[in-house]
Write a structure and sequence with these properties.
Blueprint (H helix, E strand, L loop, with lengths): L13 E2 L2 E2 L12 E2 L8 H37 L20 H16 L9 H10 L8 H14 L7 H18 L4 H20 L2 H13 L4 H21 L16 H33 L8 H15 L8 H8 L5 H20 L7 H22 L7 H17 L2 H12 L5 H18 L7 H5 L12 H4 L2 H4 L1 E2 L4 E2 L4 H9 L9 E5 L5 E6 H4 L9 H4 L5 E3 L5 H11 L3 E6 L2 E7 H6 L1 H9 L4
Parallel strand pairs: 3-8, 5-6, 8-9
Antiparallel strand pairs: 1-2, 4-10, 6-7, 9-10
Helix pairs in contact: 1-4, 1-5, 1-6, 1-8, 2-4, 2-10, 4-5, 5-6, 6-7, 6-8, 7-8, 7-15, 9-12, 9-13, 9-14, 9-16, 10-12, 11-13, 12-13, 13-14, 14-15, 14-16, 15-16
């Protein structure tokens, strides 16, 4: 492939022994020209408007689900009909309280078997799978089955948070809208992510981290076409939350100072230790799930069996039952004893791990935050005892632990950092959070390939992207790899004349494609070497072999534009024109060759 700094068509009347048309700045007539696409079009405005409406609905759904959980909790543990917030308690039923989660597990198992099996689990992996393999199509029945089943599981004592089901419900609602209204698969993905992010923002009032969650776990891209609708959705949903709740941080935390350099290093080390814990937590959940798969009974009964452990543990530690957002606040305020923190950490993990592994309907965010905050506070207390003059704040260690466990387990690094800031509104925690979460993320990536969000679907054969980078083809230009001053054929030549020239092995006769121009200098098409050498066509004229006009592209366009044009029109070559003049030809091989530079940059070491 010959590349020149100033591509042009040679003016010689013959080239390699074959007469060709003169270079007379061929006019491009009756050909397809690739037009420069706009960054944001009218469809983005339309999807943005739908996302805002979707967020309004998600905000109401989040509020309604919280009320439903409160209603079921009051009925199950207090025997009263009320929607006032209530925490599960063992006082009314005594040891009969163990039966409450079991009844909830039976109902969820029945709904999963006869309603939809997709309600099992915490919902985010299932949404990811639909994005990656199902063109973002989630069955409509999940829009109501998922929140109801989750409300039953949590309201009867399940050790889950409400945010996971709300995120899954928002995703299902967005997908449903995308299926009712005529949309592309990319637009449905955006609506699904907007619904999921709106659900998170409506639960916690965290619009920025909700956007990051959508990018890191659902969109697998950061482009204006998807970022704008999702950001508008989370802003709207957070605004809806303010209608039902006071605009205060979810987790109230006393003010604290950034601390010393020694304290910052300690928080980073704590984050690394919790990164190891995140690997253990992830593997434990799937080990329990595999253990349930060995049971000789139908999976419909597994949630009830797992609920036995939830009930028994709840009798000894009632704080492990239900959502337990208060546990997180207590850890962040340093209002729990070390013994209480240790009990909460171990028993909450055990209860949640068994329940989630049994396949019931519930979330992962709140349990991970609870376990992480308790573990972080314990490690912070130990560090403060070992290094008394470092100025280590146990509350900051709890905050780092909360975020680091989620960062390591989910691999949503920036979501974890920003979420912890938005739920406490303490900017002094950003530096410890970034250091601790990054350390946990690093350790998790080194020890475990898949995350708690992806391990299940990867096991089913779904390939999940875990690195998001700019498309290299967007950064390379057509002029970088095209064949400049291409060999051209005259439209009035005979095929036999061209075959004789190819047979002579003249210079440039080995090319696989040749632009054809007519006597007036107009580009008529591109013919392949294979077609020219077809023995059944040797008595015909060149012009008769052209079946469709040439597709052209400008040298300043990206290789992504060129590749898209090739795929759309099912061609392997494009004529490259500049100001109406033929300056080159681009083939599929040229597009692939651009990756040599990318591979060289990623593997070559040198000064």
């Amino acid at each position: 492939m010959d590349n020149h700094s100033a591509p042009r068509v040679e003016d010689s009347a013959t080239r390699g022994g074959l007469p060709v048309a003169p270079s007379m700045a061929p006019a491009i007539e009756n050909v397809s020209v690739a037009h420069e696409p706009s960054v944001v079009g009218s469809r983005v405005l339309f999807i943005s408007a739908l996302s805002i409406l979707l967020a309004l609905a998600a905000g109401v759904v989040a509020w309604a689900l919280m009320l439903l959980i409160a209603l079921i909790t009051n009925i199950s543990f207090y025997g009263r009909i009320s929607i006032d917030p209530a925490a599960p308690s063992t006082e009314r039923w005594g040891w009969l309280t163990v039966a409450v989660p079991v009844i909830g597990g039976l109902i969820v198992g029945f709904m999963a078997r006869y309603g939809s099996q997709a309600i099992r689990g915490h919902g985010i992996p299932e949404a990811m799978e639909q994005v990656l393999t199902g063109q973002s199509r989630i069955p409509a029945r999940l829009t109501f089955l998922k929140p109801i089943s989750s409300a039953i599981a949590i309201g009867t004592g399940g050790p889950f948070g409400a945010e996971g089901p709300i995120i899954a419900t928002g995703a299902a609602l967005g997908s449903l809208i995308g299926q009712i209204i005529e949309t592309t698969a990319v637009e449905r993905k955006t609506l699904l992510a907007a619904g999921a992010a709106a659900g998170m923002a409506a639960t916690f009032g965290t619009p920025v981290s909700a956007v990051l969650l959508a990018i890191e776990l659902l969109l697998f891209e950061m482009r204006p076409r998807s970022f704008i609708p999702v950001a508008l959705a989370t802003t709207t949903a957070a605004g809806v939350r303010f209608l039902f709740h006071l605009p205060y941080p979810v987790f109230v935390m006393p003010a604290f100072s950034p601390g010393s350099q020694a304290a910052l290093i300690s928080y980073i080390i704590i984050g690394a230790i919790i990164g190891v814990a995140s690997v253990f937590v992830t593997r434990a959940v799937y080990l329990v799930e595999d253990a349930f798969a060995l049971l000789p009974i139908h999976w419909m009964w597994w949630p009830a069996i797992g609920a036995v452990a939830v009930g028994v543990i709840g009798m000894f530690a009632p704080a492990t039952l239900g959502v337990g957002y208060d546990n997180i606040s207590s850890a962040l305020q340093q209002s729990l004893t070390l013994q209480a923190l240790a009990v909460l950490c171990v028993l909450k993990f055990t209860s949640w791990c068994i329940a989630l592994g049994s396949g019931t309907s519930g979330g992962t965010l709140a349990p991970l935050f609870t376990i992480g905050s308790a573990l972080g506070a314990l490690l912070g207390a130990a560090a403060a005892h070992l290094i008394p003059h470092a100025g280590i704040d146990v509350r900051v260690a709890a905050l780092v632990g909360m975020a680091a466990l989620f960062a390591g387990a989910s691999r949503a690094l920036m979501t974890s950092v920003v979420f912890s800031f938005e739920t406490t509104l303490h900017s002094a925690g950003l530096l410890p959070l970034l250091g601790g979460c990054t350390a946990a993320y690093l350790v998790s990536c080194m020890m475990m390939r898949d995350s708690i969000m992806t391990a299940k679907i990867v096991h089913r054969g779904v390939r999940v992207p875990f690195e998001y980078e700019a498309d290299f083809l967007h950064q390379a230009l057509v002029s970088d790899v095209m064949t400049a001053s291409p060999k051209t054929l005259r439209s009035d030549q005979s095929v036999q004349e061209v075959v004789d020239w190819i047979s002579s092995r003249a210079p440039d006769s080995t090319h696989q494609g040749f632009p054809v121009i007519d006597p007036n200098g107009h580009v008529r098409g591109i013919l392949t070497r294979r077609k020219l050498l077809d023995p059944t066509l040797k008595d015909r004229a060149i012009i008769e072999l052209i079946e469709r006009p040439a597709l052209t592209i400008q040298p300043s366009r990206s290789l992504r534009d060129a590749a898209d044009l090739m795929v759309t029109h099912d061609v392997g070559r494009l004529a490259v024109v500049d100001s109406g003049e033929l300056v080159g030809i681009l083939t599929r091989g040229d597009v692939l060759s651009a990756h040599r530079k990318r591979l060289h940059e990623s593997t070559h070491r040198g000064l």
